[in-house]
Structures are given as structure tokens and as C-alpha cells.
Amino acid sequence: MEYTVQKLGKLAGVSTRTLRYYDEIGILKPARINSSGYRIYGQKEVDRLQQILFYRELGVSLDRIREIMTAPSFDGVKALHEHHKKLLEKREQIDLLIANVEKTIALTEGRIKMTDKEKFEGFKQKLLDDNEKKYGKEIREKYGEYEVEKSYNKVKNMTQEEYDAVTKLSEEYLSTLAEAFKTGDPAGKQAQKAADLHRQWLTFYWDSYSKEAHAGIAQMYVKDERFKEYYDKEQPGTAEFLRDAILIYTGMKK
Amino acid sequence: MEYTVQKLGKLAGVSTRTLRYYDEIGILKPARINSSGYRIYGQKEVDRLQQILFYRELGVSLDRIREIMTAPSFDGVKALHEHHKKLLEKREQIDLLIANVEKTIALTEGRIKMTDKEKFEGFKQKLLDDNEKKYGKEIREKYGEYEVEKSYNKVKNMTQEEYDAVTKLSEEYLSTLAEAFKTGDPAGKQAQKAADLHRQWLTFYWDSYSKEAHAGIAQMYVKDERFKEYYDKEQPGTAEFLRDAILIYTGMKK
DNA sequence: GTTGACATTGACGTTACGTAAAGGTGTATA
DNA sequence: TATACACCTTTACGTAACGTCAATGTCAAC
Asked: Are residue A150 and residue A184 in the same domain, yes or no?
């Protein structure tokens, strides 16, 4: 497929001026110029523009983008993996800002207190790069706490004791599962303990327990995207592992 | 607490130049100037800077920020709620970009195909503001498609027919549920049809069906955050509605 | 009394385009 | 065949939100 400035602009969501500017500074040159002097872009240029836009979205200057992309060592696929990582970081930052604004709202309603420092959490993007680890963990802990608090407010129809019990059980279950996963053996002691804890957790919601339904849930964890994603978030493969453990636990598999 | 330019700058993660500029354009004036001509900021200014940074993060120009914040009708709390909404939208955009980069990586590995249009999904932020609804739905549909596709690749252990059937069933179930929700009556015909479709969907994973387990799942949809979030995304209250419908369907509730 | 980290006000530079202005190209229609 | 209209071109000046000197004053400490 060949594109003129406007067509490519519409496709990518940028102005024709931007494309001309990118040509001018040598960051994205058209594949060829036709007899009337029109810029014509091809497949390679489309892909290159996509790369540029990924960088731009992540706040990289056009100068840096040129440096990066024209370097002989430039590896497009590697760059994509970096984009992926950076985007995940950015999402974390947004999550932080969301938590911040939620907290600030709670502050105006007099429900909580906030230090001045907390009021700017999530804004300092650059710091994230520097002392990433320490700062990262610190905030994740805070955010985690806050999530728990939020969840608590929503499950008012559970009694406090019920809530505490199911929360504790859930935590124990998840940590046991995480450890079991490392052993790699779904028939092992740890994995079977996780399966049992899962059963206990389930029976909090079920009046009657059946092996078939339990095994069905296990299948669902793998086959349904939203479950699988949840379990695989920390350690990919966990959903399958859990399924196997439960299938063994329920006697559906040797 | 009182702050000088540098102290406030460090607190908020902005440069002193930025603070002086904000003073210059009248968007954030210090509480007072001390005898040596130093800018001194107080509590009110801290909060105002936080508001400004929220707007800035969302791409609002400083001119617009001034217009908004100096308007007599300006409501700080309302603004916070808007920030919240916008941040959620931004997160969706980031999610789109993440999906995009994942797809692009898959493309380079030859696992999938991608149209040129798909390559730029998630970049067009501005359009989101203009024709928000139409465009928003369009991409959500696509994103949905992609999720399905992804899921498809992962559920290889299902036969094609099984997969098609369960997908169709799932779609029918969700759309029936959405329509039923609008009627507001969990005992109504539509809602009961949704509950029945849900049962059919479940039995795809379960070998044996029990009313108790079905009712238990329904309870779980409300009590567990990650389920509730999923169902309430489009229309808040859907999780509760579904629970009630299923409880009636299973005869657990009148 | 000098050092060093603060603060101040100009003032010019930079990035990534937006926005005309003045004109050529391609094609459908009156 | 003319003309309307939506494209394209280059040239050039404008702008937003600061960064970056430069020249200078302030304050606490040694």
C-alpha cells in the first residue's frame, strides 16, 4: 500500500505538517517523490512511523529518536520490547495518579489525611528511573494498602469477621500457590495444599461443594482470559499449574 | 508549612524555573514575598499546584488551566472527579498501546497479521475527545476482538467448534445481560434468560451442574473485586443485578 | 570576611510543531 | 472545456513551556 501525506496522516493520527517536519529533520523520509513532487510513503515508512510514535508517546525527543533509530546497532524488535516495558511503567504511574486523586477526593471529604508529599505522588516521573526499585516498592505497598481499604468499603454486606477470614484465606491460598508453582509439581504437597485452600475459599461462596464444579472452575481459570490473566500476572503458567493441581486434587487426573 | 521555590519544587518534582514561570503568567502566585524578595508559598499554593499538575499531566495547556481555575464557577472537588475520569481514560489508552505493541511483537514473530490501521491503534488521543462515543466504541470492539483472538491462540486444547460455540454463547449472554439490566427487574424474562445463558456457559466448564454452586458463583461476582469490576465496567450495578437474577433462577431467592 | 548554597530579574534559545501565504496538481462535473 | 475543489508543494513566521545562561543580591556558617 502507498500513502500520500494526508492518507498516512489520517492513518496514524498525525498532521501533514508533522510528516513534512519529520521529513525535514530527516527522521522519516518518504519512500519516493512522484513526478509532481508529492511525498509517497510505503510499507517500511509506515512501520518506521509507528516506531517513532511509540518513542514520542514515551516522551523521547525527536533528536533522541533519530539518534536511536539511525544507529547501526538499532534493533527494531528489541525496541518494541523496550516500548512494552516502558508502557507498563507508564501505566503504573497513571495508576499512582489515580490513587492520588482518589485519595485527594477522600481528603476533601474529611475521610483521611494526607501529607504534602503524598499530594504529589505519581507526578515525579524522572525519579522513577533513578531509584526505581526502592521507590517502586514503597509506593506499591501504599497503593496495595489503599486498594484493600477501597475493597473493604464495598463489601459491607459481609460481616467483618467473614471478611477478615476470607481475606486471610485468600492471602494464604495465593502465597501457597506461588510457592507451589516454584516446585513445578502440581501433584506435590505444596500444590495440593494450595488446591485445598482454594476449595476452602470457594466454599465461602458455595453452600454445597462438588468435585465436578471445582474442577470446572479450574478449567475456566485457564480458558477464560480474565481469570488466566489474573493468575499469570506474576508468574506466567500459574493458571495451568493451578488447573492441574486442582484436577489432581479432585481426582480428575492422575 | 511554608516553602521557598526550591523546597516546593523538590516536593512537587518541578524546576524552580517552572515555579517562576507560573508566577509570571499568573497561574500560581506565592502567598507572599518576604523582605528579601523571596517567593514564599503556603498551604493553599501547595494544593493549587497539585491541581495544576493534574491538568498538565492530562495535556491541558497552561492558558486553559488558568481559564479553568480562575473562573468563578471553578469547583476544586468537581475538578478532582474530572481528573479521575480522564486518568481512567488515559489508562485505557495506555492499555491499548500495550496491546498494540504486544501485537506488533507477535507480528514480527510471524504469529499474526496486522493491518496498517491496527498498527496505530492507541495513538489517536485527540480524536477521543472529539467524537468520543463513536470512536470509543469502535476501538473497544476491536480491542475485544483482539482479546478473543488472543484467547483463541491460547485455548488450543478446545476444538474449533467448542470454541466457537462458547464464544457465541458468551456474547449472547453478555448482551442479554446488558439489556436485562436496563429493565431493572432481575426476576423479569430478560434477566432470567441471561441467568439461563450463564448456566449454559458454565456447563461448558462443568461436568455436573448444581444450583448451589451456580448461586455461589453469583455471590462471588459481587463479593470478589476482580469479578465485580469486570461486570460493572460498562454499567455499574450489573454484578448485583446478575447475582439477584441468578439467585432467583436457582430458587435461592423469591 | 569569604565561601557556598540559596534567591532574584532579565533575556535569549529550543522543541515540535500550528498556521498562513502563494502557488501547482488531479479529477469530477456543469 | 472550464471551473470547482480537494489535494499537494515550499517558505516563513508564530507559539508554548520552559531550559539555560548572566549578572546580582541574601543568608548561615566557618
From this structure: no
Determine the nucleotide nearest to A21 by Cα–C1' distance.
C17
- Output A114 or B133, whichever has higher pLDDT: A114
Separation of alpha carbons A246 and A243, rounded Å: 5
- Nearest protein residue to nucleotide C26, judged by CA and C1' positions: A36
Look at B225 and A151 and tell me if their CB atoms are within 8 Å: yes
Q: pLDDT tens digits for A149-178?
A: 222 222 223 334 454 566 667 777 777 888
Please tell me the distance from the alpha carbon of residue A64 to that of residue A77, in angstroms, as a whole number. 18
Note the pLDDT tens digit of each residue in B9-42.
999 999 999 999 999 999 999 999 999 999 999 9
Question: A210 and B215: CB-CB below 8 Å?
Answer: no
Residues 6+ apart with CB under 8 A from B141: none
Q: What is the spatial distance, in angstroms and rounded to an integer, between the CA atom of B127 and the C1' atom of C26?
A: 29
Q: How many domains are contained in chain A? A: 3
Q: How sure is the predictor about A135, in pLDDT bands with cuts at 50, 70 and 90?
A: very low
Nucleotides of C under 7 A from a protein CB: 6-9, 15-19, 24-26
Chain B partners of A90 at a C-beta cutoff of 8 Å?
94
Range of weakest confidence among A17-31, A52-66, B91-105, B200-214? B200-214
Kindly state whether residue A17 falls inside one of the protein's structural domains: yes
Q: What is the pLDDT of residue B201?
A: 72
Q: What is d(CA B22, CA B12) in angstroms, rounded to the nearest whole number? A: 14
What's the CATH code of the domain at A241?
1.10.490.50
* B225 contacts: CB under 8 Å, gap ≥ 6: A151, A154
Q: Tell me phi and psi for residue A33, to 5 degrees.
A: -115, 125
Segment among A3-7, A202-206, A241-245 with least mean pLDDT: A202-206
Residue pair A33/A39 in contact by the 8 Å Cβ criterion: yes
Chain B residues whose beta carbon lies within 8 Å of the beta carbon of residue A81: 105
Q: Which nucleotides of D are covered by protein (CB under 7 A)?
A: 7-11, 16-20, 25-27
Q: What domain range includes position A124?
A: 76-154
